[in-house]
């Protein structure tokens, strides 16, 4: 079974409401979609978002990198899977999202070739999981209204974006949302690197003193401030989650070994795909820590892959943040994960279970 064609295109999907964090505001998903085809008629799907402020990836830069990588994969046998992954990762440095998209497509093909859903190829598990949903940074009354809408739609876990206002405004927003939805709804905060260590401790301790129990606080300080991250972890009771601080297994090992965070967020777009995500999950297991499975602003292509991973590693992935498709106003993906409110169900079809993607533009084909 040989790789005979790689196709890249772009997909645009509007969001239901603007997605606002401490570092960006976005109105639509605009991602690369990749397919890898074999000479036996199988097609694997992958997706890469251009998240410049987090991964540094741009649509144009990913396309340029693909011009270098794609010819090195064409004509190669799928059975030499580890060689394909080495070729992919050694062809260019960085470009973690593009590498993730290519890896996802390759893993999709491998699982299809074996007649297995991807989660079974990776280790099995219950093919149904439950995600949180994001409440964007906004004026307090808008955030409260959005939280009520989410709870009415069946979500019992909210991920509240903070760090875009003063630390006191962040505290007021969290307390107002907690009063509006009640204590039975779990609350997670995500500062997206928006606080200093001192302000992070002020915010978290103020919320703790108000009697609000947070499930976790995600990336309170800048990604490269691991010392500050540990300071926050050491001076608060609430579990602290490292996100932008952990791209690679090496970074995860440092965070875990130094106790700089309590939880690590695995995102395929940060790890460069599934292979290194497996390493991060195994490191967390060895350190008796748990992980979140997260996503960027992605459609059901790569989020389906992330859900397969979360199912396969359910003993270490304790937190699910895979709401990307739920935030979209339309669905361009045929097959893959099904969403019913917070519930994600994976199909029992081979691979990702994706059969088509509609509305691609700027398509380019690499042939043998």
Describe, in plain words, how this protein is organized in 3D.
It is built from 13 helices and 17 strands. By secondary structure, the protein is of the alpha/beta class. The chain has two domains: 123 residues, Enolase-like, N-terminal domain (Enolase-like, domain 1), CATH 3.30.390.10; 236 residues, Enolase-like C-terminal domain (TIM Barrel), CATH 3.20.20.120. Helix 5 packs parallel to helix 6, helix 7 packs parallel to helix 8 and helix 9 packs parallel to helix 11. The mean pLDDT is 96.
Topology:
Layout: E1 3-20, E2 25-38, E3 43-49, H1 59-73, H2 81-90, H3 96-114, H4 118-122, E4 128-130, E5 133-135, H5 140-152, E6 157-161, H6 167-181, E7 186-190, H7 197-209, E8 216-218, H8 226-234, E9 240-242, H9 249-258, E10 263-266, H10 268-271, H11 274-286, E11 290-294, H12 300-312, E12 317-321, H13 324-327, E13 333-335, E14 338-340, E15 343-345, E16 354-357, E17 361-367
Parallel strand pairs: 5-6, 6-7, 7-8, 8-9, 9-10, 10-11, 11-12
Antiparallel strand pairs: 1-2, 1-17, 2-3, 4-15, 13-16, 14-15
Helix pairs in contact: 2-3, 5-6, 6-7, 7-8, 9-11
